[in-house]
Design a protein that fits this description.
The chain has 20 helices and 27 strands. Helix 2 packs across helix 10. With 661 residues, it is of the alpha/beta class. The protein is 33% helix and 23% strand. It binds adenosine-5'-diphosphate (ADP) and zinc ion (ZN) (2 copies).
């Protein structure tokens, strides 16, 4: 400290504002301002919040033109997070200002309220309320002990390392995370535990709170801003040393970090969809490596990328010693019904035996689209090129891309009132199963998808858990890491639906979906999984049925190597959007031309290709396949800056997605 000049990045959202800018420090500010300090600074006639990214004794700016900060806030961001946001801006083709917003204290513009947050108290079970089954087990399994010994020695060496914990579902990975966290605390260091979605995986969070109490801070999107702010403050002051939360918890202000855990590392929610489009798994790896922390990525269905890049430790059997449930593939070709006779029979048996079943259909709503029987019209979203989905209870047709919704029409513009519903969604499936098998008291049917989760996904899960028997119907949400003790049957409908997505990760997703559902079944008893498909020979389905994760990943890596997909390249997608399709494709073509003229070695450009309209914007995109990511991102950034300044492409927006999901 005691510097004359603060280099400040003002938090302006415009892409064209590049910083940092010099401000003169005088009087007491010289003693207090440091890297990470938050200052209110005059900027372009306004006052903006800014972050000090460096200090200096001299400035290149004329002394009489140097401005002074208006005031300093009594909060600051850790210096290592300032450096991390710089890396994020460069890596994901964003701006430093947008990246710095990720590491700011929550609700920075609001007043700070005091006192313990209310929701958190409710969220924080005591040892008693959690029960002693959930406490520290007396002995570890042999596998667990062996893995932990290696993790401990990795942590003691303090050399940054990345370890993939490939453990079958129910093999006790969470216990390993808990004990590794103890190790970090014992050596005076902190830990970050990233989980996919807290509202759907409350068990992991509860187990951390039960074990470590007040030392855990929970970052939860459903907390009030003041509560998030309080959790942030407890971490910043060192009162709390463990942060459990979804992807944004990777920015938790923890000093001397010893461990970052990525639970269910295959989960797509680790990728952020707004600018900067960061991937929390990569940010975690970067943060772990700069702070000398150990990174543990755990999953029963790890990504081929992680298998390729990390050292692998295994937990190959379930804690309870039970084997994984048999998975049977049911060929739906030639079957007109929604359920295979074998599925109908298995559900009826489950009902008779008063057991529990989970039925997964990865499509929500009542039916996927509506058409007029007379003229053939299909109801489409006016803003996007997709069919509107019928939601019967809400009596709306909704777009699953932009959220547009309209009342269900009674008749078509052609005068006909015979409208046909096509395709099955979870709302209808739950309704139909309830009509045939349901019994509110003895065999209730529950539904979990984005629609019911809005009203409380955790409640649906805990009601199903508490019920003595019944069916849980839902989208991929039902296959997250829930630890149900007594589900005997799992059924996947339309298992190849995810395979039909034009995406090189389609197979990986399909494999994970089936394997993860199988993971919820047969814990504490016998179980069986039925997979309905019209593509029974599909590689992903066959490997999932054989519980052969290694075989699947080996094949997947070979395929990706041949096609030069990640991890053997990086993909960078640039989407040009405009009100006019010509404008969008024109800008995209110019972009492709300019990038081609740079002749970057190891970079191929695919496209331009037009994409479906989204939110009223016509879109066109290119994809770069690059061996060197940073260099390709820099090239894209340079070309985009030029294009966005040129008159010819006015009104065109550019979105860059590095390693899109
Ligand atoms: P995973 O995260 O691999 O799916 P969990 O950590 O949820 O598995 O463990 C499955 C169940 O086994 C949990 O109920 C957990 O409390 C219990 N468990 C974990 N380790 C042990 C152990 N060493 N002894 C007894 N029970 C254990
Ligand atoms: Zn019609
Ligand atoms: Zn739409």
């Amino acid at each position: 400290m005691d510097a004359a000049i603060a280099k400040v990045q003002p938090l302006a959202s415009a892409r064209t504002v590049r910083g940092p800018f010099d401000y003169e420090l005088s009087g007491p500010l010289r003693q207090t301002v440091d890297v990470g300090s938050l200052l209110l600074v005059p900027f372009g006639g306004r006052q903006l919040l800014g972050v000090v990214v460096a200090l200096a004794q001299h400035s290149e700016v004329d002394a009489h033109r140097l401005l002074q900060p208006v005031r300093e806030l009594n909060l600051s961001v850790p210096a290592d997070l300032v450096a991390l946001s710089d890396w994020i801006a460069a890596e994901y083709c964003s701006t430093v200002a947008r990246s710095l917003r990720l590491v700011l204290p929550p609700a920075i513009t609001r007043g700070q309220r005091n006192g313990r947050p209310r929701a958190l108290k409710a969220q924080r079970p005591t040892h008693e309320s959690v029960g002693v089954l959930r406490g520290r087990p007396e002995t570890l399994t042999e596998d667990q002990a062996c893995v932990l010994a290696q993790l401990r020695s990795a942590m003691r060496s303090r050399a940054p390392q990345q370890i993939l914990l490939h453990g079958v579902t129910g093999s006790g990975k969470t216990e390993v995370y808990l004990q590794a966290t103890s190790e970090a605390l014992a050596s005076g260091r902190g830990a970050i535990v990233l989980v996919p979605e807290i509202s759907l995986t409350p068990q992991t969070t509860s187990r951390f709170i039960a074990r470590f109490g007040e030392t855990v801070a929970v970052m939860h999107s459903q907390l009030k801003p003041s509560e998030r702010r309080e959790e942030w403050r407890r971490l910043r002051t060192g009162q709390a040393r463990i942060c459990v939360g979804p992807r944004s918890a990777v920015f938790a202000p923890i000093d001397s970090l010893g461990l970052i855990v990525l639970d269910e590392e295959h989960d797509a929610s680790y990728k952020h969809e707004g600018d900067p489009r960061y991937d929390a798994r990569e940010v975690a790896a970067m943060r772990a490596s700069t702070s000398g922390a150990l990174l543990i990525a755990g999953s029963a269905t790890p990504r081929p990328e992680s298998m390729h890049a990390m050292s692998v430790l295994r937990l190959s059997s379930r804690v309870d010693g039970r084997s994984l449930p048999p998975v049977r593939v049911l060929d739906m070709r030639g079957h007109s019904g929604r359920l295979h006779p074998r599925s109908v029979e298995a559900l009826a048996k489950t009902r008779q035996a008063q057991g529990k079943a989970i039925v997964l259909l990865n499509r929500r709503g009542w039916s996927s689209f509506l058409s007029c029987r007379a003229c053939g019209r299909v109801w489409l979203c006016p803003e996007c090129d997709v069919a509107l989905v019928l939601h019967r209870a809400a009596r709306r047709l909704s777009c699953h891309h932009c959220g547009h919704s309209a009342p269900v029409p009674q008749r078509c513009d052609c005068g006909s009132s015979t409208l046909a519903r096509h395709g099955l969604g979870t709302e209808r499936l739950a309704h139909d199963l309830d009509a045939v098998l349901g019994d509110a008291l003895r065999f209730p049917v529950f539904r979990l998808d984005a629609d019911t989760a809005r009203a409380g996904g955790a409640e649906v899960l805990s009601e199903f858990e508490r019920a003595r028997a019944g069916i849980l119907v839902g989208t991929q949400m039902v296959a997250k890491g829930h630890d149900f003790s007594d589900v005997a049957l799992g059924i996947v409908l339309d298992a190849d639906a995810t395979l039909r997505f034009p995406d090189f990760r389609a197979e990986e997703r399909t494999f994970a979906l089936i394997a993860q559902l199988a993971g919820r079944v047969g814990r504490g008893g016998d179980g069986e999984v039925l997979v309905q498909t019209i593509d029974p020979g599909a590689r992903a389905i066959q490997h999932a049925a054989a519980h052969d994760s290694d075989g699947f990943i080996a094949g997947e890596l070979a395929r990706r190597r041949a096609l030069r997909y990640p991890p053997y390249s990086h993909l960078i997608r640039v989407i040009c959007g405009s009100e006019s399709a010509e404008q969008a494709s024109g800008a995209c073509a110019a972009l492709a031309r300019q990038l081609t003229s740079l002749r970057q070695e190891g970079t191929t450009i695919l496209g331009p290709a037009s994409l479906a309209k989204l939110r009223g914007r016509q879109r066109s995109a290119i994809v770069l396949k690059a061996s060197e990511r940073r260099r390709a991102v820099q090239a894209v950034e340079r070309v985009l800056l030029e294009l966005s300044r040129s008159r010819a492409h006015e009104g065109v927006s550019f979105a860059v997605d590095v390693d899109p999901q």
